[in-house]
Amino acid sequence: MIKRFWVGGYSPDGGGTSQGIRTMGINNGVLTDLGLAHAADSPSWLTVHPTLPVLYAALEHRGEVAAYTIVGTDRLEPLGHPVPAGALVCHLALTGSHLIASCYGDGKILIYPLATDGSLGLPSLAPASRDPFAVPGHEGRASHSHQATVLRSGRIITTDLGHDSLRLWELHDGQLLLQQVIVLHKGDGPRHLVEHPSGFIYVATEHGAEVITLSPDASGEYREVARTGLGEEILPGEHFPAELSLDKYRDRLYVGVRGAQKVVVLGLKAGIPVLVGSSACEGEWPRHHLQVGDSMLVANQLSNTVEAFELDAGDGIPSVRLDSLVMESPTCITAQVAR
Prior knowledge:
Strand content: over 45%
Order of helices and strands: EEEEEEEEEEEEEEEEEEEEEEEEEEEEE
Radius of gyration: 19 Å
Structural class: mainly beta
Number of helices: 0
């Protein structure tokens, strides 16, 4: 049976060649381009509503968020007009009743109420981040929000790549209420994170080229408990981790590393990541990846391909290439049905 996915990418306004949101299929390891679902300007991040036939797109370089009605299997129709966001909106997360947008360009975090049909209301704005390393009398560094994640507790955690910090929030009446600021090392650049069912949180650092492990204490606050490198060949400042994912068996992590053109595999021992190995992504700038059963799809942004790999049954390394599909400037792959 063919499995279908939406693929977002950078269009000319973002330095790419994508025409918008495309539909892609995979069947027995073979990838197929199923056509343009809807034209859009740099829909760099996509997310699907968990119960409604609605897809949301971050139109990064327009600074807008758009909602689309999913029609059939291969087509999208606009659901209202795009709604303003912040500069370089790069990530979207769903809470069920709200959509949260993270904006790299100006650090804004916006909370959009969702109508019963999934359409977007006007957003509220979370409090701005403050640089924890600011020096009195000197200008602070720019805030770069990059991801919001809804935790199993219902709380929300956000990353700020520019301020080397994470913030933990409660969502109440459409507003984010700050609970904790987690300060990492200066220069880490936290980008994306995942939560394990055990409660550990794993954070990929774009500038530090590590995975940081956080653990909650009895009060529910998070503390750093470990740092794991991605291999001797992965160098901070030269190689830049992007997407971080937890595999379906919950016993390993995958990290796409731009510049090194690799997918790194980390095992989990007592919750702490340990390096297993890595494999070439067969392209340039692996911006995003997605596990599909016992295979993995990798979006190689700068070489304009999506690659399909078989995951090794023993160590999980995506070393066997199944297929390659030309796809213009791909930046995000999401399943048509929310998982």
